[in-house]
Amino acid sequence: MLSLFAARSYAHLAAFRALVWRIAVWPRASMGWTVKVIGWRNIAIGNNVVIGARSWLNVNHRNRGIALTIGDNTYIGIENFFNTGRSIRIGEYGLTGPRCAFIGSSHVYSDPAAHYASTSTTDDSIIDIGVNCFIGLGATIQGNVCIGHGTVIGAHSIVRTDIPPFSVAVGNPARVVRHHDFAVGHWVEGERPSGATFPTEADYLAMLQAGNGFPIQPISAAAATFGDI
Predict the structure, then answer these.
(1) What is the CATH number of domain 29-107+115-191+199-222?
(2) Rounded to whole angstroms, what are the CA distances from 26 to 31, 57, 107, 182?
(3) In this structure, how many other beta carbons lie within 10 angstroms of the beta carbon of residue 147?
(4) Is 205 exposed, middle or buried (0-12, 13-18, 19+ CB in 10 A)?
(5) CB-neighbour burial class of residue 149 (10 A; exposed 0-12, middle 13-18, buried 19+)
(6) What is residue 12's predicted lDDT score, i.e. its pLDDT?
(7) Is residue 159 a contact partner of residue 173, using CB atoms and an 8 Å limit?
(8) What global pTM score does this model have?
(9) How far apart are CA 97 and CA 83, in angstroms?
(10) What residues does each domain of the chain span?
């Protein structure tokens, strides 16, 4: 009983201290009270960002500076889970569907005699999601993964290897089924041929900023309450 009381007291104290960070982010991002955050000091949230209800932003190693970055004009769907190893980056103009998971860390289970909930967590994986990527409903991005800019990940896909820019990837494990051919101006079947050109991420971001500016986010779709239209 004493252990439970101590844990509850610490949790309430930590939540009160973190309130300052939640208030500070309010002017530039929509983030409901049901969003759980562990590691406010290690999270960078851009302007015009929406983080959906009941999402969980979890920084495991909080002594290395920024570990989770969510870029400007990004929409995070409801019940998303971010679990950082070394770092996770979501590029500008990102879009995730409901119940997506970004798993960059796992509990160490080398000793089965240890209580896994109290063992350390891994810290070597980097998840990097480029500008204007769409991660479909229920997709999981796991481990050391780079997803190139302009890419679409299909619903319920599991991504454990790099996906090149301007691709559509689906399945478990996810594989590229289409790519955008800039020479013809539309999506075509299969992976991009070697040597085919496409915009750099910096040029692509500049193009998006010029054409989209500061988009109005569908905040009601991510709200826990009063989200009806």
Answers:
(1) 2.160.10.10
(2) 7, 16, 32, 39
(3) 25
(4) buried
(5) buried
(6) 61
(7) yes
(8) 0.90
(9) 17
(10) 29-107+115-191+199-222
Cβ-contact 87, 126 below 8 angstroms: yes
User: In the chain, which ranges are E strands?
Assistant: 29-31, 36-38, 43-45, 49-51, 56-59, 68-70, 75-76, 81-84, 87-90, 95-96, 101-103, 126-129, 134-135, 140-142, 145-147, 152-153, 158-159, 167-170, 175-181, 186-189
Q: Give dist(CA 103, CA 143) in Å, integer.
A: 6
Q: Walk across the sheet containing 87-90 and list its strands.
A: 43-45, 68-70, 87-90, 126-129, 145-147
Tracing tokens 């309130």 back to the chain, one arrives at 19
Q: What sign results for the dihedral spanned by CA atoms 76, 47, 129, 166? A: positive
pLDDT (0 to 100) of residue 125: 95
Quick one: 176 exposed, middle or buried, by C-beta within 10 A (0-12, 13-18, 19+)?
Answer: middle
pLDDT tens per residue across all 229 residues of the chain: 777 767 677 666 666 677 777 888 888 999 988 999 999 999 999 999 999 999 999 999 988 899 999 999 999 999 999 999 999 999 999 999 999 999 999 888 888 888 888 888 888 899 999 999 999 999 999 999 999 999 999 999 999 999 999 999 999 999 999 999 999 999 999 999 988 899 999 999 999 999 988 899 988 888 888 777 7
Distance between alpha carbon 58 and the CA centroid of its chain, in Å? 11
Which amino acid is present at 90? Answer: I
Burial class of 150 by CB neighbour count within 10 A (0 to 12, 13 to 18, 19+)? buried
Q: HSE on the CB side for 43, CA within 13 Å?
A: 22
